[in-house]
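Hi there,

I know you've been waiting on this one. I reran it after we fixed the sequence typo, so this is the corrected version. Both the input and the resulting structure follow.
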Amino acid sequence: MLLTLSIFIPLVTALLAIFIPARYANAVRIFCLAGSLATLAVVSIVVMNYNDDDQTDPNPHHKSQNLLSVLGRKIDAAVAEAVPTADKEESDLPEPALEWLVADEEYSVHAADLKNVPITERDWNLLRLRERIRSAARDRASWRDSGLQQDVLALFGGFPEAERPVLDQDAYDRVLELQLATGTADQRHTQASHVRFVEFTNWIPSFRIHYFVGVDGLSIPLVFLTAFLTVLCLVYSWYMDKATKPFYILFLLMETGLIGVFCALDFFLFYVFWEIVLLPMYFLIGVWGGPRRIYAAIKFFIYTLVGSVLMLVAMLVLYTESEPATFNMLTLMSTAPGFARGVQHWLFAGLFIAFAIKVPVFPFHTWLPDAHVEAPTAGSMVLAGVLLKMGGYGLFRVAYPMLPLAANSTFFFWLVGGLGMVNIVYGALAAMAQKDFKSLVAYSSISHMGFILLGLAAGTVAGYTGGILQMFNHGISSAMMFCLVGCIQHRIHHRNLDDMGGFGNQMPYFTGIAVVGFFTALGLPGLSGFISEALTFLGCFEAGAAYHGFPYARILVYVSLAGVVLTAGYILWSIQRVFLGTTPEKYKHEHDINLREAIALVPLAVFCVLFGVWPALILDYMDPTIQAIVEIVQHPLTSAGLYAHP
């Protein structure tokens, strides 16, 4: 319920805000900010109550696993006796199936243990019987033709006919999907054992589309980042007097889409939320942007739409080729690794391009500088802080765990790692050449997002940790830098670096906060940007073991280090050009930071320092999930023995 509230509070707030007359601009601001604060409060409750300790698992789908473990042994023993084709196994539990299934309360699964699990006791029993039968029969055709159905029915002969389990393939697929999704098939090779606050209900049952949401160590930092930055953006935008009402409503609609993307565990639901994000940002750029806002908005829309089409095609192929056909993302992590290698390569290529456009990755990056330069300040903050992370999140959540054969191939290692290296160096070089302050920060984002690809290519725990942590840290530092640029532009009405200087003399408090943000982007030790970059490089140095001794990752590190040096160059040059030196006469009357700006900037500066000196605050959330993702990607294998590698 908490995740549903966090997703839909912004949407409901936006819909209710429609009825507030536009002339009451302050009422709209206060009402929308209240909705955003309520969302942040709910998300904070989720964060504070998130616990990845298996002993205190809040996911109701896992409560009955100890009982099921014992139950499974007894089912195996019963099937071994009753089914001629099954391999005989010695068992100290030989009693007849009907007797213990019906009468043995010590081992029966009670309704109270399963009240929140969307399958019945007999579904669990049927599932384990069917797994055992399938293992013996080898394939679906043998199951249908060999008389095994009648043998299994004999095990349940004591049930009234109306209550007997349905033994058709649809029933099997339904139960199998739920078993895989809840992690009972093989927890070592699914992320399900780390998913918390699960909410699962049928949405479009005929196509196995569910409202399935949950959070784990990959998504929960980004959900918090979304809710947190939205509040700061709405506070900063208090000055906005052009169409205030639709501006705030669109921001809340975008928040709903963003949180939905990071919580969705059904691919169809994920895609719906992904598309919801597109239109609000298009209008934010196109209506409230700069002189070239129409061009920038259309370019953003076209690039993103192309990526969405590729994702849609890949999603439909995953659905139709998986067994059972499903959009359940946790199920697909168990079924898709069994696809043929060639199919995985094509699907991975499509998904990679779809997500790379959003990151953005060279050469799909050209929409980003235009969008940033023309977007309003709050739009740039959320675009750099959260929207770009959708691409990285999609790679970690979808492309790599579902298609590990392609992800582990040398070709895609070179491609992903090489593009990450190019992003780092090219973005830094382009940033050094900029005269527009906002454009410099935009290219800086391209450079920093390259570390995510480098961490992915490494394929190690350290590399993945660095890449995922970079998404969070860059979300904070980039939002802060765009806010700083917006504060300066709001005062002097331009962004030309050649016409700035000496602001440190007039705005000492603002300058102190700015230095924290810029040095975080530089990667200074003690600030949050350092730890994520260091872990990414460490992961690449460890990549030899992951890639069978190939030393390619170290080459990428050596070249990428040039980007780190260039980053220090343009950051220090920017600080010197904007804040140091003699203050021009025309800027001597500029005021220091005001309350609205302080509310937006100070929390970001605090986070830059806090996560720099105490990264365990966020790493403790991420670590178990990252271990699971690395296990899935590096050691892809079947779930419950049903799906084999080619």
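Quick highlight: The first strand starts at residue 196 and ends at 204.

Best,
R. S.
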